[in-house]
Write a structure and sequence with these properties.
The chain has no helices and 36 strands. The protein is mainly β and about 500 residues long.
């Protein structure tokens, strides 16, 4: 049975909230439908209940044509017995959520489906407030808000909360087909207790993050998905979205994450990965897998502000690429705090990206780094490793390990800027090679500061690279004052060329 609301819709002048409940039974669904330009009004509360018996009906609340949810409050509940389906709130055609408030609740018993709020066709979330709550039963799914077809999140505010018991899954916000996050604001929270999974926003197919703003909170334990996260799959795009991944909040806790998989792209997105907030806590991070690409994205990996915490990170694996991305890896801001970093593993490549590794500004803090492992390549990237700005602080660095190669990259290693400050450096280990790269090592910029340097260790080689070692710009610089290229162990210069300049 369905109650159809047409015409002007619902008007409540009573001053008391009016409650409407859609519920199914063993015989089938029970629904409320808004058609034409009808409104759900204000001072109204609607509940779509999940099924109560396996195979039975559920509560449905649906909007069609140009109808609107007005300023109503809507709740979609999960099924209450094993094998039941959750309640459903759906927007179709060009309908809108208006200024409504929507809550989708997660599963509460074994094998019970979650509550749903779904958008189809060209419908819009308007200025609505949406909360997808995590499950309260281990192994069950959290409530979900979903967009299909060409629907848009518009200017809505969305929160995906984590599960509330160990093993429970978090709430989700999902985009499919060519839907978009529009100008929405999204927060993905960590699990509420140890072992509970965090909230997620996911993009599938060719959906896009639009101009949305996304915050992924860090976890409180070392469960793999304890923190909040945003995931891009298939050929989805971050578009011009803004993303903040916060670090873990306890020893062993992971940070908030953004994952790119398949052929997805960071497009023109802006990503900030923050360091952990407790000793031993991991950072917020943005990760690329498969053949995904950073495209024209901007990435800021901040160093940790707490001793023993890890710095923010961007990481590339498989055959992923940094594209034309811009990456800034900042040093730690407390003693023994890790610097921000960008890592390349497997066969990933820096492509034509631009990388700036800044030195730390506090004694004992680590500088920003870019690391290449396995068979990864710097390809045509541009790398600047800046010296530190404090005595004993780590400088920025680029490091090659295993069989990684600098290929055609351009590298500049700058000296420290105060006395006893470390300079920027590029280091080669194992059997890695400088390829046909171009390296400039600048001398110290202050009396007593250390120079910029390129170093070859183990069986690494300089390949056919070109090296320019410039003199110091201040008297009293490190050793011979100028920038340097140094070979250790069984490393070889091979066919490299070297240009030495005098002190300026």
């Amino acid at each position: 049975m369905t109650l159809t609301v047409s015409g002007a819709g619902i008007t409540n002048n009573s001053g008391t909230t009016q409650n409407f409940v859609a519920a199914g039974d063993a015989a089938g669904d029970g629904g409320i439908a808004f058609t034409n330009s009808a409104t759900a009004g204000s001072g109204t509360s609607f509940t779509a209940n999940g099924g109560t018996v396996s195979g039975g009906g559920v509560g449905l609340i649906e909007f069609f044509n140009t109808s609107t949810a007005g300023s109503g409050t809507f709740t979609s509940n999960a099924g209450t017995a094993s094998g039941t389906i959750g309640g459903f709130i759906g927007f179709n055609d060009s309908s809108t959520a208006g200024n409504g408030t929507f809550i989708a609740n997660g599963g509460t018993v074994s094998d019970s489906n979650r509550g749903h709020v779904d958008f189809f066709n060209t419908s819009t979330a308007g200025n609505g407030i949406f909360i997808s709550n995590g499950s309260s039963f281990s192994g069950e799914l959290g409530g979900t808000t979903r967009f299909f077809d060409s629907a848009t999140a518009d200017s809505g505010t969305f929160t995906a909360n984590g599960g509330t018991v160990s093993g429970a899954r978090g709430g989700t916000i999902q985009f499919f087909n060519s839907s978009t996050a529009g100008n929405g604001n999204f927060t993905n929270n960590r699990g509420a207790v140890i072992g509970a999974l965090g909230g997620r926003t996911s993009f599938f197919d060719s959906s896009t993050a639009g101009d949305g703003t996304f915050t992924n909170e860090g976890g409180v334990d070392n469960t793999q998905f304890d923190g909040g996260g945003t995931i891009f799959l298939n050929s989805s795009s971050a578009s011009s979205g803004t993303f903040t991944n916060n670090g873990g909040a306890a020893n062993g806790a992971i940070g908030g994450t953004v994952h790119f998989q398949d052929n997805s792209t960071a497009a023109n997105g802006m990503f900030t990965n923050n360091g952990g907030t407790a000793s031993g806590a991991a950072s917020g991070n943005t990760n690329f897998y498969n053949t995904s690409t950073a495209a024209n994205g901007t990435f800021i990996n901040n160093g940790a502000a707490v001793s023993g915490a890890g710095g923010g990170a961007a990481q590339f694996l498989d055959d992923s690429s940094a594209g034309n991305g811009i990456f800034t890896n900042n040093g730690g801001t407390a003693s023994v705090a890790g610097g921000g970093y960008t890592n390349f593993g497997n066969s990933s490549t820096a492509s034509s990206g631009t990388f700036t590794n800044n030195g730390a500004a506090v004694d004992g803090a680590g500088g920003g780094t870019t690391n290449f492992l396995e068979t990864s390549s710097a390809e045509n990237g541009t790398f600047t490793n800046n010296g530190s700005a404090a005595s004993g602080a780590g400088g920025g660095s680029t490091v090659f390990l295993n069989s990684a190669t600098a290929e055609n990259g351009i590298f500049t290693n700058n000296g420290g800027t105060v006395g006893d400050a470390l300079g920027g450096e590029t280091d080669f280990f194992d059997t890695s090679t400088a390829g046909a790269g171009t390296f400039t090592n600048n001398g110290a910029a202050a009396s007593g500061a250390l120079r910029g340097v390129t170093q070859f260790i183990n069986s690494s080689t300089a390949g056919s690279a070109a090296f320019t070692n410039n003199g110091a710009t201040a008297a009293g610089g490190d050793n011979n004052q100028g920038g340097a290229t140094i070979f250790f162990d069984t490393s070889m210069a091979e066919n490299a060329t070297f240009l030495l300049t005098t002190v300026v």
